[in-house]
Model the fold of this input.
Amino acid sequence: MSTGVRPVGILGGMGPEATILLMQKVLKRVDARDDADHVPLIVHQNPQVPSRIAALIDGTGENPAPVLAGMARGLEAAGALALAMPCNTAHAYADDIRTATDLPFLDMVAATAQALPEGAVVGLLASPATQTVGVFDAAFGDRGISARTADPERMLDLIRAIKAGDATLAAAAELRALADAVGAVDRLVIACTELSLVTGGLEPGSWLDALDVLAGDIVAFARG
Done:
């Protein structure tokens, strides 16, 4: 391992492909000439984290917080020096993760808000659960950012299809249609890591992906 490079622990599996995509994005951000130049990641790929949708929308599912807190402690024990989580909706439990260890938590939601201009009007492409519990509300409010959202039922259908392996051109076209329906905004924000898998149909330069922001923060922390 390169001198001074700090390992980051990833609370993953929500969903599994999104976690792999984050790892790929981190790899691509490093100008590496050898294996040792890359950022060390300790990944807990846990697709058994209780459903955030069932807990936050349906109100019938198991609380994911204890599982996420346990993952955080496990990553700390494994040698992680910071934590990151490639799931926007699960940031509803960010405080539970913060209190589980003394490690810094690289907050994807807060960092995404900081990456947007103050006072911007954004199209928030996110899961209905993220919208319902206001995961982005405080971070956006601090910067005077207002958000418009897409049809929640169509969005949930799309996210479920992607989780089932349908990261196809049809899924990308549906994301484009949902984005167009949001109307005129300063920027689109990809705020569900499943949607990060199907951004190919969006107009280049029109959108910011929270997963890209997190990848940048992971590399910045790891390299000090």
Notes: The chain is about 45% helix and 15% strand. The mean pLDDT is 95.
